[in-house]
Design brief:
The two termini are 33 Å apart. The protein has helices at 19-30, 47-57, 73-83, 99-102, 104-124, 159-178, 200-209, 229-238, 274-285, 309-315, 323-337, and strands at residues 10-14, 34-39, 63-67, 87-90, 129-135, 182-187, 190-191, 214-216, 223-224, 227-228, 261-266, 272-273, 291-293. Helix 1 links the parallel strand 1 and strand 2 (34-39). Helix content is 39%, strand content 16%. The chain has a domain at 10-191 and 227-267 and 306-316: NAD(P)-binding Rossmann-like Domain (Rossmann fold, 3-Layer(aba) Sandwich). It has 339 residues and is α/β, with parallel strands linked by helices. It is globular.
């Protein structure tokens, strides 16, 4: 899709040293934006990977970094007011379904309190558009496929999903009360180069490279709407100018009747069986993986499937990179990075 021109924009990106935040900040800088990245380089996974991502961003003259946690309202407010963003892309979060079972306090502090701090700043320092990451996990126990933005999301299966759902609700109240234009995007299993070590593809690759077996949960019978990171970023950046107004763009629109607020799936609408995903990795590495088939873990769901109708109506684009191509790109990056 056509590159968005952002030469007049000042964009704050939280979680800029993270997987999706790094790719997003890179794309914004390429489009000419001034970018303030915020990240606290938490040790949830290998900090050296975050430092490596950040080092690449620092080479761009339009980028500056603030090392702080969004839970710190005073430090956050100081850098916000100095930079004076016109747009916010909020990607910082404590991620991971399984980690939330043992470390619930981290999720409430970062995902809920941190998001609240950002919304308070947007309340007192208006922006053109506040975009924030949610997750497909908010669909929880829903069994109707594909997942559409207009479905109820009151049955989360993990605390991670519950905190993300809570930020959507808090965001809606701020959009209604203070007129903040807000878009929450629900990500569907994002993967690709520079990915997170706690995610399945990274774990599988590390095990294969070390000659070890991979753990295949749900006995391999799960399916996911996998989204290649470059496709996700293309959609995310295009949504910057899709500011919620007062008129729905289609019958599939989740636009609130009382606020400039919508939620939108970023997924291609093409679920892939887990075993096909693993087969793509085996093809890219030229190695058949040894497999430990295991029961589904607490908090997991058997399948995800995005409705892409609203995304297509908003920006005319949906993620479409084939899993084989995306997995090969990840393998090429992994081998280069760890060579």
């Amino acid at each position: 899709m056509t590159m968005t021109n952002l030469t007049d924009r000042r964009i704050l990106v939280t979680g800029s040293a993270g997987f999706i935040g790094f790719h997003t900040a890179q794309r914004l800088l390429e489009a000419g934006a001034q970018v303030l990245g915020i990240d606290n380089f938490t040790a949830y996974y290998d900090v050296s990977l975050k430092e490596a991502r950040s080092a690449i961003l620092k080479k761009a003259p339009g980028f500056r970094l603030a090392r702080l946690g969004i839970e710190d309202s005073n430090a956050l407010g100081a850098v916000w007011r100095e930079f004076a963003p016109d747009t916010v892309i909020h990607l910082a979060a404590q991620a991971g379904v399984r980690y939330s079972i043992d470390h619930p306090d981290d999720y409430v502090a970062t995902n809920v309190t941190g998001t609240f701090n950002l919304l308070e700043l947007a309340r007192h320092n208006p922006v053109r558009h506040f975009l924030a990451a949610s997750t497909s996990s908010v669909y929880g126990a829903n069994t109707e496929m594909p997942f559409a933005e207009t479905q109820r999301t009151q049955t989360p299966m993990s605390l991670y999903a519950a905190t993300k759902g809570a930020t959507e609700l808090i965001g809606h109240s701020y959009a209604h009360l203070y007129g903040i234009p807000l878009t929450f995007f629900r990500f569907f299993t994002v993967y690709g180069p520079w990915g997170r070590p706690d995610m399945a593809l990274f774990k599988f690759m590390k095990a294969i490279a070390g000659g070890e077996a991979i753990d295949v949960y749900g006995h391999g019978k799960m399916a996911r709407d996998f989204t290649y990171v470059e496709d996700l970023v293309s959609a995310l950046v295009a949504l910057i100018d899709a500011v919620p107004g007062i008129e729905p763009v289609s019958a599939a629109d989740s636009l609130s009747p009382v606020a400039p607020f919508r939620s939108v799936n970023i997924g291609g609408g093409s679920p892939v069986p887990l075993m096909d995903y693993i087969a793509a990795l085996e093809a890219a590495t030229g190695t058949e993986a040894k497999k430990n088939f295991m029961a589904m873990q607490p908090g997991d769901v058997p399948a995800t499937h995005a409705s892409a109708d609203l995304l297509r109506a908003l920006i005319g684009f949906v993620p479409e990179t084939p899993v084989r191509d995306g997995v090969k790109a990840f393998v090429d990056w992994y081998r280069d990075y760890y060579s």
